[in-house]
Amino acid sequence: MQNESVSARPTLGFDRGTLVVSGARRSPGAPFQWDARTRQWRCNARHYSTVRRALWGQVRDTLLAPREIGWPRLDLPELRPDQVRALTAWEDAGRRGQIIMPTGTGKTVVALAAMARGAVATLVVAPIRDLMYQWHRRISQVLGFNAGILGDGRHEIWPVTVTTYDSAYIHMERMGDRFGLVVFDEEHHLPAPALRQAAEFCAAERRLGLTATPERWDGQHVYLDELVGPVVYRQEIPEARGATLADFQTVRIPVALRDDEQRRYDALSRQIRGFMSARRKDAPRYRWEDVCKEAGHDPAARRVLRAFHAKEAIETRAAEKLRVLEDLFRLHPHEQVLVFTGSNRMALEVSQRFLIPMIIDKTGKREREQVLDDFQAGRLRALVANQVLDEGIDVPAVKVAVVLGGFSSPRQAKQRLGRILRKHAGITAVLYEVVCQETREELRSRSRRRSDAFQGTRHLRL
To answer: Is the sign of the CA dihedral 133, 361, 374, 332 positive or negative?
Structure first.
């Protein structure tokens, strides 16, 4: 009779990224909704932790318990006090939540410690392939485990797996019930409309989000609380400055456009303003977003969008920036220098003019690894990159960085600053920001100086 009673209970199962309750005569309650096609109650898998507690004893749970992991090796470095506080806060919050710490303070080590303590099937999600492989190496080094790789042409869904956001959201509906812990590295990518399915379709009860800068320009970061969990620990750059991070200074170097560049820049500005003014006569609320939408079918809007990109090219590739960069190389003759540009074209110009290697999104994996290895070994004096090194990727302990373009958001600014903040005794890091005067670059620079990380920026003319 007892077996009959158990079998007669409604069942809770996993189906294509959702939880389904079958055989229930009435609604199991929120967050379930009735699916008339299959005649089941259904909700996204991310609610599993809440549902399991709410329906305990009322349904027969058919989801398999995530596999326990026995780590072949534990070679974790001793956690610093701030890392201990971060890990403890996450565990006290039910092993769900976000840890926000500056670049270079060891968020990855905190996550590896969480994996080591939890000893459960784990999925690590990273924004790009380079970070995915970096995680794979760290898991092997610290935990002695050969993780599966899902992405870059490989399809290895193992008890511990590393993947990218793009691969995770594609495959999560088929593997979302296999893991007990999911780690979202650089979690600010997660709220993107498509990518958030990587969290929505995952049943993992333990969730850890890592980032230095969760805020997004579109405000979608507000969804991180429900996709990952609340912020359980937050540390800003000023708190870590001089302690876990190197002491640093930021230096702003203004430059002027050449006469021909300025004339072209002003002409493009007039073209854009004239177009917007004309459109707003008929539609007062006409915005730049409308230009982007209309560019696909309206030749006039398309010309204005090209003018906008041409203006950006003048800012990011101003000739005077190359002269200043040459002076900075002379100013730091015995130090390695990391150069950030605002476009691949500018990276190529820097690489060709100064005969230094570059890393851009089109650089092959082997070439990129070789360049970074040579840089770390001190065989290269300088390296130029566009956006490839902005996020998460470990770069050698360089203490001088020059930004010639980019910095389109406070997040990118802090990420690039973070590339030079790994602590070394007695060394002060310096970030030079080369900015074109009387352009949009100058406005963005003023906005960045309101950030706590850029307080006290010095001004220098070369």
So the answer is: negative
